[in-house]
Amino acid sequence: MREPTFLVLTALAEEPRHGYAVIEDVATITAGRVRLRAGTLYAALDRLRAEGLIEVDREEVVQSRLRRYYRLTAAGARSLAAETARLRSQATIAERRLRARAEIGGAPA
Amino acid sequence: MTTLEVRYRRLLRIYPSGHRAAYEEEMVGVLMSGAEPGRRFPSPADALDLLRAGLTARLGHSFHTQRGTGWRAAAAVTGLFVALALAGGAVSRLAAGLLLWGRGDPMRALGVDGLMLADPAARTVIWLLVVTAAVLGLRRATVGLAAAGVLVQAGAMLLWSAIVQLPAMFLFWQLGLALVVTGLFAFSDRPVRAVLSGRGLALVAAGTVVAATTEAIARSRAQERPWFDPGFAEVFWDLAYYGLPVLALAAAAWTAGRRVRGRIAVLSAVVLMIAFVLQALDQVVTEWRYSGPTAGGVLSAVVLFLLPFAVLGGGVLLLGLRERLADRGHGHVRAHE
Fold it and tell me: pLDDT tens digits for B150-207?
């Protein structure tokens, strides 16, 4: 799973959000490191909808603009959980190796 | 509508119509929400992102979303058809050689008895192995054997070049088709039997049996005088020889489903065009050898080179139009699903 996809699913795991709210939330949870652009966001949303990982929650019109809210499906939650476990496992391995490296005084550069 | 919104909408035209119908209003909303007040032009980063994503959506609409159920599946079936044709040609040549050999011709070449049979025998073995591996669903073995088929075809060209003491360009088109078969099997993502139904494979077998039978009858009748009109007989045998096996293969392709069979037709047309072009190139090269390159010759070579691409482009365009019309007929837009 690519990072934008993971971040979009993470944003929707909390509550249904519309496109701009997803962009804002992703910027928040990554401390501003990732700011999704509209093209990237809607490519991810379209693919995730086609794969059944998200679905439309509701639509609103605010100041003559369409806002479509998306929510995570059960399959999307499972997929996010699996990806989270995978990342956690890899991070654990990396952490353990770094700790071991530090304990033996570090490898020569 | 502000100037900025008009410009964003213009940029969004890069997306396919189905995508725009589903997301344009939403995307404009997002883009306008993210734009600084007073901005009149889209930011370069936004513009590039939309262009990239729009082009990807367009290409994806044609290729990505159909991957595995479209072109790659069609490549497996087309690869089998071409391998069958190469095997059939080799069997036919071997049968003719064996008949001559049985009548006392030593089939001698380069001072070695029977050497002229080595080429069709090797081609028969390798292409029958390719067909068998493809039908059994051994994808990697099929690709490996087809690559070996390329080497066998190249070896056959070398052998005949040594025998006739000229480049054996008359076998060039078969070498080209061997490369095409290898490419098709390498590109495919599933075995043939996962694409064609059991009935489809039975039809392929039936086509092969018909071709073998007509070939055997044609060989045996070569010494007989037909009792009916020879002109009519030729038409009949041409139809039986090419028409019936092709019909059986077309019927087999039909069982692959609407999307895949259209792609099989396009790929088969491209392969036929490649075979024609390679044979025509043989003539162009032969002319060059005797009269040197001419402007007309170079132009012919360029046009010939472009023909398979034109057939592929035309085929893809026609398929796209047909599928778009069918989707409209069913009120179906993928992005809305």
Answer: 999 999 888 888 877 777 777 888 889 999 999 999 988 777 877 777 788 888 888 8
Over residues A21-77, the pLDDT tens digits come to 999 999 999 999 999 999 999 999 988 888 888 998 988 888 888 889 999 998 889
Q: Do A42 and B34 touch (CB under 8 A)?
A: no
Pair B173, B25 in one domain: no
Contact criterion met (CB < 8 Å) for B46 and A38: yes
For an interface test with B, the pick among A8, A34, A35, A37 (most B C-beta atoms closer than 10 Å) comes out as A37
Per-position DSSP letters for B54-107, written without gaps between them = HHHHHHHHHTGGGTTTSHHHHHHHHHHHHHHHHHHHHHHHHHHHHHHHHTT---
Q: Where are the domains of chain A?
A: 3-100
Beta strands at A17-18 and A54-62: parallel, antiparallel or unpaired: unpaired
Nearest CB among A19, A39, A50 relative to B26 is that of: A19
Cβ contact B178:B66 at 8 Å: no
Q: Do B27 and A42 touch (CB under 8 A)?
A: yes
CB-CB neighbors (< 8 A) of A43 in chain B: 53, 56-57
Q: Which fold is adopted by the domain A3-100?
A: Arc Repressor Mutant, subunit A (1.10.10)
Clarify whether residues B49 and B159 are in a common domain. Answer: no
